Amino acid sequence: MRKEDCFYLGKIVSKYSFKGEVLVKIDTDEPELYDNMESVFVALRNNLVPFFIEKCRLHKSQLLRIDFEEVNSEDDADKIMGSELYLPLSFLPELNGNKFYFHEVIGFTVIDNVHGDIGTIQSINDTTSQALFEILKGDKQLLIPINDDIIKKVDRENKTIHVTTPEGLVDLYLS
Known about the structure:
By secondary structure, this protein is mainly beta. It folds into 2 domains: 3-89, Beta Barrel (Elongation Factor Tu (Ef-tu), domain 3), CATH 2.40.30.60; 108-173, Roll (SH3 type barrels). The protein has 2 helices and 12 strands. The longest helix is centred in the middle third of the chain and has 7 residues, at 74-80.
């Protein structure tokens, strides 16, 4: 399995017991979707390695307490401490309406209500306080904030996102 075919679920942040149980901080708005998993991919030395789960349950709000089949001691748990966990993209629940996963809109055309076609989404920058579409129009890159006030319609069938950008924003890039 390749990372490109998976989504980031979370990271092993601490040991829970001397029997090898670990706590995973998960990156999701719906943690309850991931209790009772049977397996995950653990990133070890630039490879995704399948790990089978004996028991998995929610622990507090954003933590999963996981007992892996092959992790039976503190030493075993130490070997995977800090590792990232991944699941295949097919495990993501389907979204509809104007909700979307960042990976699914790469390549979509962005249509502004004033300027029309303002380019194609090349990537999403989510390292800033406000996630941004990184859009390429010819040789120019545009950065458009991702928020409900700007996004008016996500059209999966036609691979377009319709937006109403703040006045002057697109002009900054295309002038």
